[in-house]
What we know:
The chain contains two helices and no strands. It is an all-alpha fold. The termini are far apart. It comes from Kaistia defluvii. It holds the Pfam family HAMP. This is Methyl-accepting chemotaxis protein.
Amino acid sequence: MRLQRRMEAIADTLARISEGELDARIPLLGDGDDIDVLSVRINATLGRLSSLFEGMKQDTADIAHDLKCR
């Protein structure tokens, strides 16, 4: 039952990410088991993707601004 709840939490987090909630992260139990280790790596990846996406949004806004000023 505990494993099923954790899998549901992972699936829920990934669904939230796919819906645009880029700050969603997988909850950790902190016991260092395999699921926590994997979740830490997924969360790090999500953090990096979120940063890259925000950078891309900023670059796009900067380009749009530059084109508007010409």
